[in-house]
Amino acid sequence: MAKHILIAAGLVLAAAPVLAQQSWLTASEASYRILRRAMPELSARGSTAAAAGGVAGAEPIYLLQVRTSSIARLSQLIHAELKHCGGFMQHPDESSGRRALARHAAPIVPLALRPNYEIGNQALVVPALASMGEKPIAQAIQDLSAFPDRFYSSADGARASSWLRDTWAALAGKHGNSTVELYAHAGYGQASVIATIGGSDLAAEVIVLGAHLDSINISLGGNKSGAPGADDDASGVAALTEVLRVIAETRYAPRRTIKLIAYAAEEVGLRGSQDIARAFRQTETQVVGVLQLDMANFKGSPKDIYLLSDYTDAAQNTFLAKLIETYLPSLTVGIDRCGYACSDHASWHAEGYPASMPFESALSQDNPHIHSKRDTYANSGNQAAHALKFARLAAAFALELGGSGP
Questions:
Q1: Can the peptide bond before residue 233 be classed as cis, meaning omega within 30 degrees of 0?
Q2: Strands ordered across the beta sheet of 305-308
Q3: Residue of 48, 229, 47, 79 lying closest to 145 (CA atoms)
Q4: pTM for the whole thing?
Q5: Which residue of 5, 177, 276, 281 is surrounded by the most CB atoms within 10 Å?
Q6: Is-contact 28 88, C-beta < 8 A?
Q7: Could you give phi then psi for residue 89, rounded to 5 degrees?
Q8: What CATH number should be reported for the domain whose range is 122-403?
């Protein structure tokens, strides 16, 4: 998840000169104020502030140009004061950043499609959820966190993509109507991984289940070893892996197409998911629902699952709550907010698609070890029982939307 650790006191960032290694960011108002205090010379290149935040109730965002090498430090400053995830998106150029401003001020019109959110596949969903287990999730978390790091530009980050592609392909091969592929991104070696389960009469309509593949250790500058990322976000990828296993082994034949996506480069401004969501919108792909799993295995709060209410779809969030009530009735549900661009669901929301993100805890009580060498399976209690709750919710989401009518 795009959340970062406190840096040493006294760090001062220099203003970014206009040099080759520059990046464009859109940042929340709160994040911009923090950066301005550290970088008095920094000025916004554009904003939605003049329109009082654009759409009623939306927070203003600002377009900034900074040195690429400063991004990790900016993230540290944001987390040190705001104590929450993310706060910015990174864009490949100025025009992309201005596009993000425009869509925040006047969100894109959603494609004219909405599922009915009726729950009616109990005969399929109940046994599928019962067959899901903690052990395979735990193994996948440990396998992924065994990489020295999964940073988006490192050799190990690229190897993690290939490893996951092969792992998912071995599972998907049992299905008969599925594919697994690498989705390459410009400018860095880590690829996103996409598993597709083909639909039947509603195949043009797509359900997306996502998590992010990359990890980061801010204290080591991001691209060095020591970033196991067991909770952030091996836990989400492992939960998706268990969903894929159950779909493949039961040979579930959905009406709608289901895509499971492990995104590259989330930790540096949601870069991988932005590429994919933008491509889907450009081809007018009918995505009827997006679910993001980013940190699922550290139970830091009394309730089991917290649904994020900002930059998500209210109707789909209600549907998730109904799924929990129907299929996971012993679980308790909380509501929280995480701010602008806190994980990959925000990329889909920005493109007008209904997106949701269930989270492991209240934001103020999430895993204190993330983005460090301490984000290990052991520091999540040597268990995957909490992540299993999210895997089952994701499976229920996929199987209900996959088989429902328009």
A1: yes
A2: 333-336, 305-308, 358-359
A3: 229
A4: 0.92
A5: 276
A6: yes
A7: -120, 140
A8: 3.40.630.10
